[in-house]
Amino acid sequence: MSGLAVEVEVVTSICAARVLIRQLRGLLVDIGNAIRAWRSVRDILRDEQDEHQG
Description:
Elements: H1 3-53
């Protein structure tokens, strides 16, 4: 393998890793948003249940 081919492989790998990291960050943000939404719904349902019982 020539030096240029190795450099191309390295650059390609770095670019692919950066894309993967960006996608993982997006996934973590989506998971965080889903957890926050679930907690909000849970709190609303709990408040409604407390009103009906109280």
